[in-house]
Amino acid sequence: MKSSDLQAIYVMWLRQIKRFVRARSRLVANIAQPFFFLAILGFGFSSARFPGIPIKLTYIDFITPGIITMAVIFSSMFAGISVIWDRQFGFLQEVLVAPVSRISIVIGRTLGGSTTAIIQGLIILAISMILGVKISVLGLLPALIFMILTAFMSVSFGILIASRMEDIHGFQLIMNLLLMPLVFLSTAFFPIEGLPNWLKYVVYANPLTYSVDGIRGCLIGASYFPLTLDLIAIAGLCAVMMGLGAYSFSKCEV
Amino acid sequence: MIIVRNLVKIYGKSIRAVDNISFNVNEGEIFGFLGPNGAGKTTTVKILATLLKPTSGTAEIAGYDILRNPDGVRRSIGIVFQNPALDDQLTGIENLDYHARMYGLGKEERKRRIKEVLELVGLADKANVLVKNYSGGMKRRLEIARGLMHYPKVLFLDEPTLGLDAQTRRAIWSYIKKLNREEGVTVFLTTHYMEEADYLCDRVAIIDKGKILVVDKPEKLKSYIGKDVIYVECLNSNLLAEKVRDMEWVESIKVKDGVITLGVKQGEKRIPDLVDIAQRNDLKIFSISMRKPSLEDVFLYYTGRRIRDEEGTA
Q1: Contact across the interface for B90 and A15, Cβ inside 8 Å
Q2: Are residues B197 and B108 in the same domain?
């Protein structure tokens, strides 16, 4: 890899960070939405008991990992939107005509989008601690690894779709249509135990299940699957998605 | 500096956007593609900039083949796209700095060069302003500056003054002349403004429907038309026209709405003749004006259409 390729990765990363910091209203909205989910659902269902939630945990403890995952995924999708955005506003041409490899551009975008997504996940994590959720300090680092893999996976997915699309509204529509069911069926809001059998298989097939379950295992010590299984599943999915995303972007034309 | 051989680009199955064009651009010259919207100008630029692959044919830029060595081409060229390609959430300086990094310029060099190009386009005092607060003309100047950052051998300008007002357009023109002179960079520009091609270009290729019709210096192109056009406004225009019609220097004559339009050679010598004829016949002339044929007339001559007719449809 040439030094200009490393520079390209750095530039694409730094650009995402700067845009992120400068777009304050977006940041506020991105934090506010998961915060409302956390506070309203968390306190609203605080006295409800679900089969599958260990008795020592309150409902807000249970959904915190789910909301963190949700925050990471939703903001990761902005990396996809920014590809379409750059195409519409012409900046993509400037990047594609530079004497750097496409792969370095994808890596830079993925790192940039993931960084901002993880920052938002961490902000939600901090808020949940303020709200009194019992977080295992030893689990923070492993949880961060899950968050990073989740961010890489979803940013790559966003880039995969965005490389083929020209319409921002279409992209948002697809994402909302896809993401909401995926988030709801990832055990983010309710445990797998109470579900009918056919729905359980949907949950097993859902990549986000392993993110949520892994982060939950790390942060509050109550995962449904063994943590190693979660890790292998999410790492494998992440690798596949990154490959597809990079391939798709390398083929995109302006 | 640029050698293009039998370049063809077919979109879909049958749209021949670029139809077998060949031309050369010499080092240090400003070369222009003049033609209406949809003539294939932007497609040609994108192929030369390695953003699109040609259907057949090839080209060489600064010694690098666009198909075999696209990276060499990319390092040798700067490009200003038809649509703005800036990140407007970043400042002017950030846009330039990021560009320079991707082209492998070192830290000190970046700093020095940013200052240089910003001064060249007169944006030094706006360097730290977010691009979204720039005017259209400022954005275009910043893009030109960015295209020059990495000392390209060839600078591509795709419709550099599209959508700008007359005053800003003139300012951009003077910057283009200046960078060509001071940086010695070869400029390849596309435009559908005749005045722009006429004023800026050392040589112009007239392109229509994917084909190059003619390539030459603007003065040469206009002299192909071979005549001046004289307009005479007078009291009894039909009578004057009768008297003038049989003169051997008149190449064409038309009377409409009291105005006589004459196509002649060496128009400046014919104006006194016209006045003589009018006085001898006691005819009162209100005004006489003469103009040199423009590139518009050249385009009309080669295609039978005016470039302006195409405007507003794209």
Answers
A1: yes
A2: yes
Q: Chain A residues with CB inside 8 Å of B74's CB? A: 97-99
Q: Which residue in the block uniquely carries the two structure tokens 């846009």? A: B95
H/E stretch holding A102: helix A102-130
Same-domain pairing of B90 and B192: yes
> For chain A, which residues lie within 8 Å of any Cβ of chain B, measuring from their own Cβ?
2-4, 7-8, 10-11, 14-15, 18-19, 22-23, 89-100, 253-254
CB-CB under 8 Å, B88 with A89:
yes
Q: Scan for tokens 């259209």, then name that residue.
A: B136
- The size of chain B, in residues, is 314
pLDDT in single tens digits along all 314 residues of chain B: 999 999 999 998 888 999 999 999 999 999 999 998 888 999 999 999 998 999 999 999 999 999 999 999 999 999 999 888 999 899 999 999 999 999 999 999 999 999 999 988 899 999 999 999 999 889 999 999 999 999 999 999 999 998 888 888 898 899 899 899 988 999 999 999 988 999 999 999 999 999 999 999 988 887 766 568 788 888 888 888 888 888 888 877 878 777 887 878 888 888 898 898 888 888 888 999 888 778 877 787 677 666 665 454 43
Amino acid in the structure at residue B30: I
As separate numbers, helices (DSSP H) first and strands (DSSP E) second, chain A gives 11, 0
Chain A residues with beta carbon closer than 8 angstroms to that of B81: 90, 93-94
pTM of the model: 0.81
3-state secondary structure of B88: coil
**Residue numbers of the domain that contains A220:** 3-250
Judgement on whether residues B128 and B246 belong to the same structural domain of the protein: no
